[in-house]
Amino acid sequence: MSHSHADTIPVRVVAVEQVTPQIKHFIFAPTGGGELPAFSGGSHIIVVMRGAQRVFRNPYSLMSSPNELDTYQISVLRVDPSRGGSAFMHEQVRVGSELEIAHPVNLFALAKLARKHLLLAGGIGITPFMAQLHDLRLTDVPYEIHYATRSPEHGAYCELIAQAEPQRARLYHDSAAKFIDIEGLLSHQPLGTHVYVCGPAGMITRVLETARALGWPDSHVHYEKFSAPPTGAAFDAYLDKSGIALHVLPDQSLLEAIEAAGVDAPYLCRGGVCGFCRTDVVAVDGELIHNDHYLSDEEKASGKAIMPCVSRARCSKLVLSL
Amino acid sequence: MNVALMQEQVYRGAFAFRNSPQAIRRFPLPFPEDRYMYSVNIEPHVAGPAGSVIEFPIDCDEHYVEECRERAVVLAEDPLRYQALPHMLSAQWDTLELGMHSLAQSYPQHFSLSRQGRSWHWINRPLGLDQHFSFGDPATLPQPPLEYITRQLQGDWVIMDQRDNDLWAEGGMVTGPADWSMDFDIGMSFKEWHGPVPLGHEMGVFDRALKFLLNLRLNEPVRRLNWTMTVHPRLDTSPHNYPEWGPERAAVTAQNVADVLHLRTELQGLWRLPRSNGIVFMVRTYMLSLRDVASIPKWARRVHRVLRDLHPALVDYKGLTRHRPTAVAYLAQFDDGAPTTPGTAPE
C-alpha cells in the first residue's frame, strides 16, 4: 500500500471572471461529475497547478456556500511579484482548464460557542467570510461584518455583501478616507463575542494588538494564517545502506523522494507525530530543518536524527542510515 | 426458550455471545510484538485485506444485529448513554452521513442510501428500517441524528468540537465502554478526558496525539488499536453498572478462565467531519475468549508473553490485577518458548 500523496480531486474550471483589476474569480466543478466534499465556512483548498517547469500548490479560501457543493468558488489576487502560483492562475487558467485540488482544511473556523461574531475583512481577506456568512445565516447568533477595501473599484464583493447583509455589513474605502475603527469596535462588544480578522498583515497585527491591549482573551480572537505544507530548497540525499542517491524537490518531502527512489521506508502518520519514520542522520553538510512534533529539542539540536515525512535539510548533501 | 430473551442475553445474563471460526481469525490482535507499552500507534485508516476488520471504514460483522439490540437494551435502562450538547448538531449530521455513506458503500446488500439534494432515503435491511428524511432537519428523524445513526452502528461513538487548540468531547453514544462514561466525560478537553490513563501523560503521548489530531484532514481518517480484558463477553462494562461486573473479576478460576476471560480489542477510528470541522471518534470493540485465543498457536504464545511481562501500572489500570496470574497460568501451557513471527496475522 502506498500513501505517499494525499488524494486530490480533479476539477474543471467552469467560469472565470475578472472582478477587479487584480482579482479573478474562479468556479470549479468536479471533473467526474457529482458533488464536491462538504466543508465548513473558513476552509481553504490547495490548488495544484502543473506548470511547464514545476508544480505549484497554493492555498485559497473557499468563498462559496457550504450548502452548495456542485461547485467550489475561489478568488485569486494577483501578487506582484508572484512566486508563480497566482500568475499561473491569472494567465494560464481559463474556462475548461483542468486542475487538481486537495480536500478542504479549516484553520479559520467559526467558534460554535460564541455569543456574537465580529468579522473584519480587508481586501481579498473577504473570501473566507463569504462562506462563513452562509453558515451564520442559519444560526440565531448575532454577527456583523466590516469590510475595508482600497476603493470601490478594488472592492471585489462590496455590492454582493451589501445586498446580502444590508443590516449587518459596513463597507469602508481607503479612497474615501473611511477606515474600520478597530479600537472603537473592540471596545464595545458584548461578553462572549469572538472577533475574526482576515486581510493584509498590518491589519491582522493591529487587530491582535488592539484586542490584547483591551483585555480580550486570545481564545476569542481569530485570524487566518495559511499553513502551507513544509516546502523548502531542493537538496541531495544519499541512502547509506541502500547505496541510493536522490534529489529532493522543493515541494517534495524527503519521505516522498525516498519512496520515489523505490526504497520502502517505515512510516505511520506522515504528520511528524508518531515517530515511526525516525531516521538516523549519518552526515549533513548544512542544516537540518525539523518540522516535526516528535523529536525533543535536544534531539533536534544534536542533528543525529530526522523525521523525513515532514522535515528536510538546507544542504547540498544529507546522508541517511537507510 | 423465549427467542426475545435469548436475543437480549448475548452480552449479558446467559452470555450467548460466540465467535465463529471466521470471526476468530479476523480478530484484531492488538500486539504486534511479544511485549506491550503505550505508543502513539496511529496509522492511516486505509483499506486492509479482504475479510479483515479494516477492509472497510466501518466494519459490520456477524454480531451486528445482536450488538444493535444490546445498545437498545442499555438505552432503555439508561437514556443518558446518549448525549450531545446543542452546538454539536452539525457534527451529528456529519456523523450520520459518514455512517450511512460508509455502510451503503461497503455493504450494498444490507444497506442503501439514495439522495436527491436534501431528501434522503435510507434502508437498513438487517434491522428492517426504511426512513425518508430531510438532511439537516432533525424533525424528520425519529431521534436526534447522532442517536439515530449510532443505534444502527456497532461500537461507541464520540463527537468532538475543535476550538482553542483542543478537542472537546461534547456528544456521544457510549453503551459498551471499557470502564468510562460519556455522562462523566461530556464537555471535557482531550487531556481531561484521558486523565485517568497512567504513564501516557509523562511519556508525552497525549501532547503528541492531540497535536496530530488537531491537524487531522478530511478524507484521511486514522486508526489505532487499544485493548483490555473483560470477564464474560460483557460489552457494557461502564462505571454506571460496576456493581454488576466488578465482582465478576474475583470469580475467575483456573477451571473457568478459558471461557469467561476475554481479550478485548478496541479498533479506534478518527475522522475529520466536514460541515462542523469537528472529529468523530469510533471505539469498536471485539472480544475473544482465552480459549479462542489459544486456538491460534502464535497468539497463545504472544498473549502469554505480553500478559506475563506487562508493566504493573498497566496491569492495575486495565483492571487485570486479580485474574492476570490465572490467565498467564492458563496460557503458559501453550507457550513452548518458540519465537513468534512478526505482525499479528494468525500465521
Compact summary:
The complex is a heterodimer of chains A (322) and B (347). Chain A has seven helices and 19 strands.
Structure notes:
The complex is a heterodimer of chains A (322) and B (347). With 322 residues, chain A is an alpha/beta fold. Chain A has three domains: 8-106, Beta Barrel (Elongation Factor Tu (Ef-tu), domain 3), CATH 2.40.30; 116-223, 3-Layer(aba) Sandwich (Rossmann fold), CATH 3.40.50; 235-320, Ubiquitin-like (UB roll) (Roll), CATH 3.10.20. Helices cover 18% and strands 32% of the residues of chain A. Chain A is built from seven helices and 19 strands. Chain A has helices at residues 85-92, 127-136, 158-164, 182-187, 201-213, 254-260, 297-302, and strands at residues 8-18, 23-30, 43-50, 55-61, 72-77, 98-102, 105-106, 116-122, 143-149, 169-173, 193-198, 221-223, 235-239, 244-248, 279-284, 287-289, 305-306, 312-314, 317-320. In chain A, the strands form four sheets. In chain A, strands 1, 2, 3, 4, 5, 6 and 7 form a seven-stranded antiparallel β-sheet that branches. Chain A has a five-stranded parallel β-sheet with strand order 10-9-8-11-12, sandwiched between helices. In chain A, strands 14-13-19-15-17 form a five-stranded mixed β-sheet. The two termini of chain A are 20 Å apart. The relative contact order of chain A is 0.12. Chain B has helices spanning 3-8, 21-25, 64-77, 89-106, 145-150, 182-185, 190-193, 200-203, 205-214, 242-245, 257-260, 290-294, 297-308, 312-317, 324-332, and strands spanning 43-44, 82-84, 111-116, 119-124, 129-134, 156-163, 166-173, 188-189, 222-231, 261-272, 279-289. Helix content of chain B is 32%, strand content 21%. Chain B has 347 residues and is α+β, with helices and mostly antiparallel strands. Chain B starts with a helix and ends in a 15-residue tail after the last helix. Chain B has one domain (18-332). The longest helix of chain B has 18 residues, at 89-106. In chain B, strands 1, 2, 6, 7, 8, 9, 10 and 11 form an eight-stranded antiparallel β-sheet that branches. In chain B, strands 3-4-5 form a three-stranded antiparallel β-sheet, with helices on one face. Chain B has 15 helices and eleven strands. The chains are: A alpha/beta (322), B alpha+beta (347).
